[in-house]
Every structure is written in structure tokens, then in C-alpha cells.
Write a structure and sequence with these properties.
Elements: H1 2-17, H2 19-24, H3 44-47, H4 58-62, H5 74-77, H6 81-96
The structure holds zinc ion (ZN).
Zinc ion binds at residues 43, 45-46, 79-80, 82-83.
Length: 107
């Protein structure tokens, strides 16, 4: 519920702010606000040309989890939808086999 409200309010606020400023915004040169270029995230699985994510390849699968054992979201890792589904399956399988932890205590 809270997220829905945020999403509906955000675009409205942008429109009221300054519709003219959007088009007149100068191109960013050197010394702009953004220090780093926005890099397109590439799916790790696609990049390595693996056709399937295997639960036995747990070291690779582990790279898609947080230290606490949580599965990292697609937004963060940049994996494609198809492979994210395979990764979540592999992680859950590994958890059940006690290869990966369900959770680890916070330090
Ligand atoms: Zn992929």
C-alpha cells in the first residue's frame, strides 16, 4: 500500500515542479553531478554463456546471495528474468541441501 502511494505521487510532483526545465536541461559535461557513468548491467549467466544454472555450481550461485543469505534482487545483480528464476530455484535447492544458509546472524 505504502509503495503504491509513493509511485502515484512521484510522477505528479515531477510534472508540477518544472515541465519546461526538463527540456532545457543542459547536457552534462565534465564536473557534472554524476561522477560515475551509468553502466548497463549484464546478466552474469548470459555473459558466461551458461545455458542453465546448476545448483551443484554453488560457488557461482552463492554470488547471487547476500552475506546474510538473502537472495539478491534482479535490480542489483542485473540478471535477466529467465536466469533469475533459475538462480532462485538453485539457491532454494542448495538451502534445502544445507549447501547455502537460509540465514546468518548479523554481526
Ligand atoms: Zn541471463
Amino acid at each position: 500500500m505504502a509503495e503504491e502511494i509513493k509511485e502515484t505521487q512521484a510522477p505528479a510532483a515531477e510534472n508540477t515542479a518544472a515541465p519546461a526545465a526538463r527540456g532545457e536541461r543542459p547536457a552534462r559535461g565534465f564536473g557534472g553531478k554524476k561522477r560515475f557513468e551509468i553502466r548497463r548491467k549484464v546478466c552474469k549467466v548470459c555473459a558466461e554463456k551458461m545455458d542453465n544454472v546448476d545448483y551443484k555450481n554453488f560457488q557461482f550461485v552463492k554470488s547471487f546471495t547476500m552475506e546474510s543469505g538473502k537472495i539478491l534482487s534482479r535490480r542489483i545483480t542485473g540478471t535477466c528474468a529467465k536466469h533469475q528464476r533459475q538462480i532462485t530455484k538453485a539457491i532454494k535447492r542448495d538451502r534445502n541441501l544445507a549447501i547455502l544458509p537460509y540465514s546468518l546472524p548479523k554481526k
